[in-house]
Amino acid sequence: MISCHEAVGRLWQYLDNAVDEVDRARVEEHLARCRRCCAEMEFAQELRRVLADSADVDVPDDVMDRLRRTVEEMDR
Amino acid sequence: MSETRTDPVQRTTGPGRDLRQGAAAGTATLDFGELARQQLPRLYSIARRLVGDDAEDAVQDCLLKAFQRYGELRVASSGPAWLVTILVNCCRDRGRSRARSPQPVDFEQLERFSLYRKIAYEDPFPYSDSLHLDFLAGLGPEDVRAVLLRLPMLYRLPLVLVYMDGFLTKEVARMLGVPLGTVQARLHRGRKLFEKELWDYAEQNGLMREARG
Hints:
The structure holds 2 protein chains of 2 kinds. Chain A contains 5 helices and no strands.
């Protein structure tokens, strides 16, 4: 079984589905037996969610007006 | 192995109809306007995360360049991604001209940093049963975006595009004109830097002060 250090080092790639089959199996074997690394994976998942949830930025009305005006001028 | 797209953001991509049909009918300018108008909220949102207060100027730069190069767009359905690529380059240019000499990063030390372990060790919420999740719950979207802006553009870009806008790493590699391995390496370092900066930001802004009492 891979070590905690090795498993944690691959957690994000694992969550991204960016590891090969062999590494995926190794990480999953480790997670099945290591509660501490499961907690660290849960944290990594939550951190990804926090990033994703911070994506949307409202466009202020005046900014949107100016940008639309630029497009309109190009559109003529 | 097939990389999973992180697609948290409702893309404002329009219908997949062929915009070039419009061009063939002599309405290319109209089609550019339609594409641009559809994508304005998304472009501004990405720019805000990449260059902060310069977002509006970056989108204006992007619109101008895209308008001048609209004839290069061959596949209409790739219009939204094509616009984002132009925007990313505009943001990089702005980042370069604004950049002060960046703080050198000690990557060996950074490699050993783990936000998970740091929170466990420092124990900012002694009475909490869910210490790590409480730490994250104290961060609002504005905080997260402020932390991203602290990162060098090199590492901020892949984090924003992959984890906030749902692009695949291979798409980011194409967008930036670098090999896939380079994007993956920057993503890895970017995540580490983000974790480190997240902790520093929380400390500097008193996000854990009340809990420490």
